[in-house]
Amino acid sequence: MHITKYIPNTITCLNLSSGCFATVSALQGNLGAAIAWIIIAAIFDFSDGLAARLLKAYSPLGKELDSLSDIVSFGVAPGMSLYVLLEAAASSLGCGGIQWLAYLAFAIPVFSGLRLAKFNIDDRQTTSFIGMPVPAHALLWGSLSYALQPLIASNALCILVACLAASLLTSYLLVSEIPMFSMKVKTLKWKGNELRYLLVCCGILFIVLFGFLGIAGSILLYIILSLINNNLKTK
Q1: What's residue 126's pLDDT?
Q2: DSSP-derived secondary structure for 39-80
Q3: What pTM value is reported for the model?
Q4: CA distances from 18 to 103, 107, 115 (A)
Q5: CB–CB of 151/159 below 8 Å?
Q6: How many Å apart are CA 97 and CA 137, to the nearest integer?
Q7: The pLDDT of residue 233 is above 80
Q8: What's the mean pLDDT when you consider all of the chain?
Q9: For residues 206 and 161, what is the distance between their CA atoms, to the nearest angstrom?
Q10: What's the pLDDT score for residue 174?
Q11: Could you give the residue ranges of the DSSP H alpha helices within the chain?
């Protein structure tokens, strides 16, 4: 039995391990490490599919393992990061009765699970996505949680209200019927990849200018570009 058969699943397991490390980091209040591990998990998530295609090592086990890993890395980990942020914001306000609001952060893993289950049985998503992909959603909330953590002392109420509302909205995007383009490319030519190249260039610029917060900006740009692209296609 050739060892290359196991390479994609090994990479997927590294994705899962990274998600576990991200979750533990969030629980310890280290949201910088949490988003770093989520980024690493996203790299492994992209690489396992690439390895499977190059090595022709597809398997039903790999498909199931990928979804189970993603729910940890891109569902539980960002949900825990947001929970830590919201719990700290609620505590900062000195109102013990509202700390339960932080538990609404776990809408992220719930809707991420729904999204992954929907993706596995939807044959319309072979070349693009319907609804927001879970890695993008995880990167959005992992980076936002880290960027907003130092601002809790002076902006606790705004952070609590805005993040609660936004997290419920983006959780809905996970299971929505809104088409969103994929970052997978078949060719490096400009034609057909205009949105991908624009997103990558802007993402690099955002990260250089704003650090981890630039990741959140890149994901918001991804959503906007997908909506514009859909609008142009319907005209």
Answers
A1: 65
A2: HHHHHHHHHHHHHHHHHT---HHHHHHHHHHHHIIIIIHHHH
A3: 0.90
A4: 23, 21, 20
A5: yes
A6: 29
A7: no
A8: 88
A9: 25
A10: 94
A11: 7-27, 31-55, 60-71, 77-92, 107-120, 134-148, 152-175, 194-210, 213-234
